[in-house]
């Protein structure tokens, strides 16, 4: 029964091989079974879903054509039902571990005598092989890709002179960057271990695609006037599998880093790439004074206190200037100064014409000193993003990922850029960020979750939100995610209950205050709504952000409903003022903030301006996410227009544009065989 079932499926696919539109729905129809039945039986017999089963047969046939027909790669792709040669190359590489051209060369270069011998054997066992190929899940013939090696870099310990602490930090950073550049090695620092891997079940997520989990640790000490780095590599069970020693001095630190990197690569029999060798040659000599101030600044910038005390940015900035006074070529200080000026000035200077010019200055300085500074390329991309120069931003991000292919935040910003241009590409880049981080970065998982909800895939959104929660157990964010899921499914009472649970955990989250205010406002409970909106307004005032990007027309609507019309008009006017500033300055995707003032004008009865901005948004070459369509369809501030033919026509356009993005993401999910289970 098993053999007959698989054989019948295989024959149907082969009969429709050149039809690129032949997919799961067509195969289900031909087999005259339900989709769920076919999916279940294929999973049981082959551990593949329907799309994978069809794709693997196409690829097996492609491998035969490559060896037996005089066809180009593109011609082979089309003959086996791939509409895109690029996508065919990607799938072939994933399946066989090499490109179609490489596969053809490898097979053709085999010795004649060996080939003849293989032919004789095949002539004898060919019937068996045909059946075996089907029964054993169409096994791959090309060599398997090497598994990835997972390494944690544990913070170096130190003894003796307290200044050795800064040498230890320097060596950690050098090793993380050097080892990360070696193909086949995946590096995580100790923070990842502390935050995620110690949680039950998370180690399994990391080692699923790795041969094993290793830790490299160092001890910095002094002996006979020399500073030594004694390092060792241990397996997850604690067994030491390698160790060594390197001498670190002002002028020998580079060679010590080179030696340790080479020793680690030798231990695992992984050759150093030219890129890695070049990177090691360009390591700046250590300057203890500069490193000392830099490390002190980093501890402030990446510590918890800076979230509640923004004055600490000034302290960190001063320390970085001191690092540069000690070493004017200390490019890492310029990198961090670029990010400080982005983070600190974002809210304060959003409406200034020279917004983030200092970010660009410091990023340029870092790249002048070290052209391989991928962090500085990200900072430059951030500047261009906020100047609405998206092609320049994408160019900088490509430069960053060329230098460091595992730089999660470069893929994150690419995703952000595509958010209002192409939701499928947005999700593709965030999905790449999640893959690069081996699914252990909760922040990336939650952002991916959010963008799936923007595309209308709420089960997928919940799936990734749950993965994030399993990693960091952040109950507040989990309840916010659940609230979004319930609201998308029109279970608003359950959604509000989750918002309240999140608020009980952290009543200082500004986004949560805004969400709670809107939840009660949508339910017509305006007194309750105003309670949370008051807290939200106070939050903006404390940060001098009322004239920035704050959403204040929603509080205004609730104030109006309880009779506070003076306050309502003030915030309605402020929303118009702030949004029109964005329009003049052309901040990123400023078009979408225009929905805010369209609501204000509609509520005030200024239909001409309401329609003007609704029309302006939909006429832009941008995509329409679910939340924007939902505002047009359901927000009460549009109630005065809702029955008018002009508004009905506009709502239809918003709906159609949203459906376009929804379908593009659906196709991406199908093409990449993404499953949410």
Explain how this protein is built.
There is one protein chain. The chain has helices at residues 2-15, 24-31, 35-46, 50-68, 73-79, 85-96, 100-108, 112-135, 164-180, 190-197, 202-207, 253-267, 274-281, 288-301, 312-326, 331-345, 357-369, 374-386, 390-403, 408-418, 423-436, 442-454, 458-472, 475-488, 492-505, 510-522, 526-542, 553-561, 565-585, 594-604, 607-618, 626-634, 645-671; strands at residues 148-153, 157-158, 185-189, 210-223, 226-235, 240-248. The chain is of the alpha/beta class and 677 residues long. Strands 1, 2, 3, 4, 5 and 6 form a six-stranded mixed beta sheet that branches. A hairpin with a 4-residue loop joins strand 5 and strand 6 (240-248). Helix 22 runs antiparallel to helix 23, helix 23 packs antiparallel against helix 24 and helix 29 packs antiparallel against helix 30. The chain is globular and about 80 Å long. Residues 118-147 have low confidence and may be disordered.
């Amino acid at each position: 029964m098993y053999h007959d079932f698989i054989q019948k499926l295989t024959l149907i696919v082969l009969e429709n091989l050149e039809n690129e539109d032949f997919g799961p729905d067509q195969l289900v129809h031909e087999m005259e079974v339900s989709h769920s039945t076919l999916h279940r039986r294929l999973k049981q017999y082959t551990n593949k879903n329907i799309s994978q089963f069809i794709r693997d047969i196409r690829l097996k046939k492609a491998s035969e054509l490559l060896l037996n027909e005089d066809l180009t790669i593109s011609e082979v792709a089309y003959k086996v039902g791939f509409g895109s040669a690029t996508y065919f190359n990607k799938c072939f590489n994933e399946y066989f571990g090499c490109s179609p051209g490489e596969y053809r060369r490898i097979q053709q270069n085999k010795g004649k005598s060996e080939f003849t011998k293989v032919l004789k054997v095949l002539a004898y066992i060919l019937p068996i092989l045909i059946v075996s190929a089907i029964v054993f899940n169409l096994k791959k013939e090309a060599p398997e890709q090497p598994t990835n090696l997972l390494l944690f870099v544990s913070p170096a310990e130190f003894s003796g002179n307290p200044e050795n602490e800064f040498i230890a930090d320097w060596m950690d950073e050098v090793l993380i960057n050097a080892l990360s550049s070696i193909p086949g090695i995946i590096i995580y620092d100790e923070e990842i271990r502390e935050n995620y891997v110690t949680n039950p079940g998370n180690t399994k997520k990391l080692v699923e695609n790795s041969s094993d989990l290793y830790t490299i640790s160092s001890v910095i000490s002094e002996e006979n006037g020399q500073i030594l780095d004694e390092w060792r590599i241990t397996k997850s069970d604690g067994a030491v599998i390698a160790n060594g020693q390197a001498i670190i001095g002002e002028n020998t630190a580079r060679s010590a880093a080179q030696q340790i990197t080479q020793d680690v690569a030798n231990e695992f029999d992984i050759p150093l790439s030219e890129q890695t060798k070049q990177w090691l040659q360009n390591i700046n000599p250590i300057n203890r004074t500069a490193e000392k101030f830099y490390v002190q600044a980093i501890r402030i910038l990446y510590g918890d206190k800076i979230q509640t005390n923004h004055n600490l940015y000034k302290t960190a900035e001063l320390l970085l200037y001191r690092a540069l006074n000690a070493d004017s070529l200390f490019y890492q200080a310029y990198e961090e100064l670029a990010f400080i000026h982005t983070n600190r000035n974002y809210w304060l200077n959003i409406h200034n014409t020279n917004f983030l010019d200092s970010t660009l200055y410091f990023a340029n300085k870092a790249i002048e000193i070290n052209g391989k500074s991928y962090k500085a390329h990200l900072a430059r991309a951030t500047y261009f993003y906020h100047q609405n120069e998206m092609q320049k931003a994408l160019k900088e991000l490509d430069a960053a990922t060329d230098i460091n292919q595992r730089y999660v935040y470069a893929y994150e910003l690419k995703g952000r850029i595509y958010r209002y241009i192409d939701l499928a590409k947005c999700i593709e880049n965030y999905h790449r960020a999640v893959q690069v981080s081996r699914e252990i970065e909760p922040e990336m998982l939650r952002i991916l979750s959010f963008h799936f909800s923007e595309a209308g895939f709420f089960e997928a959104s919940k799936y990734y939100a749950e993965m994030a929660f399993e990693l960091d157990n952040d109950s507040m964010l989990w309840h916010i995610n659940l609230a979004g899921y319930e609201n998308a499914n029109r279970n608003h009472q359950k959604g509000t209950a989750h918002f309240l649970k999140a608020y009980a955990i952290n009543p200082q989250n500004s986004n949560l205050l805004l969400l709670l205010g809107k939840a009660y406002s949508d339910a017509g409970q305006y007194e309750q709504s105003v309670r949370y909106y008051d807290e939200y307004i106070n939050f903006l005032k404390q940060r001098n952000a009322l004239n920035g990007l704050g959403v204040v027309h929603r509080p205004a609507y609730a104030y109006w409903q309880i009779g506070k019309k003076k306050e309502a008009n003030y915030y309605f006017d402020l929303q118009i003022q702030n949004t029109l500033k964005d329009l003049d300055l052309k901040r990123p995707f400023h078009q979408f903030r225009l929905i805010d003032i369209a609501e204000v004008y509609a509520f005030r009865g200024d239909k001409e301006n309401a329609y003007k901005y609704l029309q302006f948004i939909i006429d832009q070459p941008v995509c329409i996410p679910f939340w924007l369509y939902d505002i047009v369809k359901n927000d009460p501030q549009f109630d005065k227009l809702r029955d008018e033919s002009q508004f009905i026509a506009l709502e239809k356009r918003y709906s159609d544009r949203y459906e376009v993005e929804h379908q593009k993401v659906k196709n991406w999910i199908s093409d990449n065989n993404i499953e949410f289970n």
